[in-house]
Design brief:
Chain lengths: 108, 115
């Protein structure tokens, strides 16, 4: 079983749509969770950390469910510039374990 | 804003040649990492480095790979005898002082093409 699993997509949505990505992780000892964004052929960049209490940053909301070992990312009012691959990650010993990424394409 | 820098941005080499990829982590960071991403695949952990030694390595990081922090600023990844399947983007990352639970900051990557 993959340590971090994501639906690779692609998700094709119109501008202004709300889109949700899900992710599951298998290592119950994982301590930290993040969503990274990766543009084509670029490095991953932190989008936001994920907490059990849920956290929101503008149009982005992340949620962690430790009991289900499930992480989510919600993007509201999608912009063209949101088109990218979104990487779910978990961390136990400091290193990040990445999912394969979910590709989002926002169309005009 | 401090950043992780990597050189070269792209290297083309013949199979069997040695390659050294260089990274300058953020200056006050203590934890350093190498990842690789084969085209179209996920970002994979190779090795982590702390206090001048390897703290963890993946199955990918076999005897052909080595890391070094020779001068307190550079952090290098050496591949002794490159294979075709080593072709990938290699990302260096560093992590904040005093913690290994926070954000990793990635360099822009070094693209390695093995012919």
């Amino acid at each position: 079983r993959k340590e971090v699993e994501q639906d690779p997509g692609p998700f094709n949505v119109p501008e202004g749509a709300t889109v949700a990505f899900n992710c599951t992780y298998s290592n119950s000892a994982s301590q930290s969770f993040f969503w990274y964004r990766q543009d084509c052929r670029k490095e991953p960049k932190l989008l936001m950390s994920v907490y059990s209490s849920g956290n929101e940053d503008g149009r982005f909301t992340a949620q962690l469910n430790r009991a289900s070992q499930y992480i989510s990312l919600l993007i509201r009012d999608s912009k063209l510039s949101d088109s990218a691959t979104y990487l779910c990650t978990s961390s136990n010993t400091g290193k990040l374990i990445f999912g394969q990424g979910t590709t989002l394409q926002v169309k005009p | 804003e401090p950043e992780v820098t990597q050189t070269p941005s792209h290297q083309v080499t013949q199979m069997g040649q040695e390659v050294i990829l260089r990274c300058v982590p953020i200056s006050n960071h203590l934890y350093f990492y190498w990842y690789r991403q084969i085209l179209g695949q996920k970002v994979e952990f190779l090795v982590s480095f702390y206090n001048n030694e390897i703290s963890e390595k993946s199955e990918i990081f076999d005897d052909q790979f080595s890391v070094e922090r020779p001068d307190g600023s550079n952090f290098t990844l050496k591949i002794r005898s490159t294979k075709l399947e080593d072709s990938a983007m290699y990302f260096c990352a560093s992590q904040g002082a005093g913690t290994n639970t926070g954000e990793l900051f990635f360099g822009e990557g070094s693209r390695l093409t093995v012919l």
